[in-house]
Write a structure and sequence with these properties.
Protein name: ArgH2 protein
Number of domains: 1
CATH superfamily: Pyrimidine nucleoside phosphorylase-like, C-terminal domain
Helix content: 25-40%
Largest sheet: 4 strands, antiparallel
Organism: Symbiodinium necroappetens
Structural class: alpha+beta
Order of helices and strands: EEEHEEEHEH
Strand content: 25-35%
């Protein structure tokens, strides 16, 4: 979260999936639209599409633009998105082939490792503020 210029903080948040299967619903997208810092949402998957686990920029499930005058509100909203991703509540998926958890197996991918590390650091992980 970078805070600059006019006193507003913002971030473009890539939405990731730890699930695979056919999307039956997108309740998480509706939840993102209700966030206090919500500005816009680009959806890359829709009902009826097959979603795969996010492994790179080509498999992100969407992009949320969040902006708020209070950096704490922005950080809370980002934390909520990350929580929904880990819990698997962004999508209702049929035919999911693995439990809803970011790290499975003996050698998780680099992406899964980084996401799980950031998640473990808490809601303000990666929050940057400009020095006065």
């Amino acid at each position: 979260v970078l805070e600059r210029g006019f006193g507003w903080a913002g971030e473009m948040v890539s939405l990731i999936s730890f699930q695979e299967g056919v999307v039956e619903g997108t309740p998480g997208f509706d939840a993102v639209r209700r966030l206090r810092s919500y500005v816009s949402l680009e959806e890359n998957v829709h009902v009826g599409d097959r979603v795969q686990k996010t492994i790179d920029l080509f498999t992100v499930t969407g992009l949320a633009v969040l902006i708020h005058s209070d950096p704490e509100v922005l950080a809370e909203d980002i934390s909520l998105i990350r929580k929904m991703e880990v819990e698997g509540s962004l999508f209702d998926v049929q035919g999911e082939d693995s439990p809803r958890s970011p790290v499975r197996g003996v050698l998780p991918s680099c992406f899964e490792f980084i996401v799980s590390l950031i998640w473990s650091l808490g809601p303000n992980a990666g929050v940057l503020q400009e020095a006065n």
